[in-house]
Amino acid sequence: MDDLEDKIPVLCVGPKGSGKTTLLKKLQDAEGIDYTYSPVPTIGTNIYDLHYFNRHGKKQVVTIREIGGEMSQLWSNYLEGIVKVIFVVDTSNLCQISAAAVMLYTLLAEPKLQRAKFILVLSKMDAAYRQMRNEALLMLQFTRLSKELRNAPILLEASPLTGIGLDDLRYQLTHTKTISK
User: Fold this and answer.
1) Does the model's pTM come out above 0.85?
2) CA-to-CA distance for 55 and 95, rounded, in angstroms?
3) CA max distance for the chain
């Protein structure tokens, strides 16, 4: 793969237990994902490469660094050069959403990410009631964010179990540009 164009650096973050690892493994089409166990929280980081062909037929790679929710205090150490941020929120856990909102706002205010494209992924939609989705968006103040921020997050719903939303996420990672000055 010597003819790869530049890798696209992406950061995947969110609260502990939001489903980042399972989402990224499924996005990468990893085999052998076992949904019957309780996943172990990511302590540290994981790297995922998503290979694809761009519109010019050139091989390209999106490199996604997942940082565990337990490490939220250290996220700022990984922001240099990031062009896209996937922020994952578990919609089936309303108790976690206010903490997720603080984490998201902190990242949106980060000067190093002012040109980054944000993708807000509401995960575990298969386990949540539709009303929980609406409550999550209300708690995240998504409507306000969308109106007031230049780099307002793109909203996606995803479920690694059913595969819903994975194609949309893959498209956002491989086909959309970052914000220009």
Assistant:
1) yes
2) 42
3) 48
User: CA nearest 64: which of 10, 5, 125, 24?
Assistant: 10
Distance CA 169, CA 121 (A): 8
Which helix (H) or strand (E) segment is 142 a member of? Answer: helix 142-148
Closest CA to 117 of 176, 38, 73, 55: 176
CA distance 117 to 177: 8
CB 99 within 8 A of CB 14: no
Contacts of 155 (CB under 8 A, 6+ apart): 120, 122, 137, 142
**Ordered mean pLDDT values, 10 residues apiece, the chain (181 residues):** 61 92 84 56 84 83 90 91 94 87 92 94 76 85 88 88 88 72 45
CA–CA gap between residue 110 and residue 113 (Å, rounded)? 5
Q: Would you call 33 exposed, middle or buried from its count of C-beta atoms within 10 A (0-12, 13-18, 19+)?
A: middle
